[in-house]
Design a protein that fits this description.
7 strands, binds 2-hydroxyethylsulfonic acid, alpha/beta, Rossmann fold, binds NADPH dihydro-nicotinamide-adenine-dinucleotide phosphate, seven-stranded parallel sheet
Length: 259
């Protein structure tokens, strides 16, 4: 029987790359997201690696929908080996005293409460089997606030505390808990942050040779594939020309030099 990975926010970026990596790595997959056609297309493309794929359509902010989706999981899909809590977003870069209330709520409800909901629903089954791995997608943004990052950074600092707390709660089990903290990854992330402004989003990654979703997926798979006695507790993954959440070296001629 193949192992099962459940990935939230699998319709784009890091989540989609994780789906591809784990499918190639001989996992069957539960892929969740809000966009049914994208999940269906992902399922079709993952069949190339022989992965059995179950798409689940729900918004992680909708706790009742998440409960119902997990409640009706067919028996064959109940034993999740790897939970990747990836669904998340940043909205805006306004100063805290000028921020939009709606944006704050969306980030907190998705990045913190959505992640907690999925953890609460899936981890009890892991505890019953004394087996499993939770990989939370945190961020370098959780290490220290940057200008305009205020609430987003706070949500990723919360992911760190929640991940560390879960690791403590599971210390007498064989279940492993990982916080993956990427730096600049070129995905749809900045397009979402800037409310669809693609030019503004592209500018974030210009001259830095950013990470890709596949780079993060490789690390997630590495953590999941480590020998059972090895727990990769936390990984900070930065682009070579990024030193931390605020210090980057940008050179317009660089893109080609590193590719
Ligand atoms: P993308 O925007 O490409 O992907 C985000 C994914 O999360 C999408 O599939 C999106 O679905 C999903 N999602 C967002 N909100 C919800 C929701 N309420 N319910 C279900 N799914 C939702 O960005 P990334 O791949 O970059 O982001 C993935 C994670 O990585 C996030 O947690 C982000 O904070 C984190 N991260 C990203 C970094 C980066 O530089 N890109 C760096 C560090 C961390 P939909 O298409 O429906 O919106
Ligand atoms: C995403 C990385 O630096 O844009 O968490 O916040 S950053």
């Amino acid at each position: 029987m193949k192992k099962i990975a459940l990935i939230t926010g699998a319709t784009s970026g890091i989540g989609e790359a994780c789906a591809r990596k784990f499918a190639q790595g001989d996992y069957d997959l539960i892929v969740t997201g809000r966009n049914q056609p994208k999940l269906d297309a992902l399922k079709a493309s993952l069949s190339e690696w022989g992965a059995d794929v179950l798409p689940l359509v729900f918004d992680v902010r909708d706790r009742q929908a998440a409960i119902e989706a997990v409640d009706v999981l067919p028996d064959r899909w109940r034993d999740v080996d790897v939970l990747i809590n990836n669904a998340g977003l940043a909205l805006g870069l306004e100063k805290e005293y000028e921020g939009r209330f709606d944006d704050w709520e969306t980030m907190i409800d998705t990045n913190i409460k959505g992640l907690l909901t999925m953890t609460r629903l899936i981890v009890p089954h892991m505890v019953e089997r004394n087996r499993g791995h939770i990989i939370n997608i945190g961020s370098v943004a959780g290490d220290a606030a940057y200008a305009g990052g205020n609430v987003y950074c706070a949500t990723k600092a919360a992911v760190k505390a929640i991940t560390d707390g879960l690791r403590i709660d599971l210390v007498d089990t064989r279940i492993r808990v990982t916080n993956l903290k990427p730096g600049l990854v070129e995905t749809n992330f900045s397009v979402t942050r800037f409310h669809g402004n693609k030019a503004q989003a592209d500018n974030v990654y210009r001259g830095i040779h950013p990470l890709t979703g596949a780079d993060i997926a490789d690390t997630a798979f590495f953590a999941a594939s480590a020998p059972e006695h090895v727990q990769i507790a936390e990984v900070l993954i930065l682009a070579t020309h990024q030193a931390n959440g605020t210090v980057c070296s940008k050179d317009p001629d660089r893109e080609e030099s590193l590719s």
